Amino acid sequence: RAGLRRVTLGMESGSPAVLERLGKPTSAAEILSVVERMKAAGLLVNLVLLVGAGGERLRAAHVDQTVALLSQMPLERRDRIFLSELVLAESAPLLGQEPQSAQLDAASLAAESASLRSALRQLDAHPQIARYDIREFHG
Question: What is the residue-averaged pLDDT of the chain?
Fold first, then answer.
């Protein structure tokens, strides 16, 4: 059987404030709508979440609102949620207004990842959850 079966979407966060912080041109409602349409078309989805995207200030909102948005999605066991640490190049304009201290350290990133994993395991659909590291694709 040929054809498109799975689509990967860089969701990053379900928090409007975090999406704005990241300069994303989309909203949580638009992300939900896209996933609903993909699932209605019979596609499997991969959703990439950015661990640490909320920094220290928006950390709780990032986790809580992301999980809340995912819980509204018609996901299934064969769908995948990838947890990817926020990685910024030194020259990246992203978050340029914030001090380095606003970003999460390694221990905080690990704690946020664990918190997300724990909450995502509670979703009714039980999608697959895996780590995704963009640095593995740069040589």
Answer: 88
Neighbours of 14 (CB within 10 A): 26
Q: Tell me the two tokens of residue 40.
A: 């209605």
* pLDDT tens digits, 81-93: 999 998 776 655 5
C-alpha span between 41 and 74 (Å, rounded): 12
Sheet holding 80-85, edge to edge: 6-12, 44-51, 80-85, 128-131
Predicted model pTM: 0.88
* CA distance linking residue 56 with residue 103, whole number of Å: 6
Tell me which residue of 79, 64, 68, 60 sits closest to 130, measured CA to CA.
79
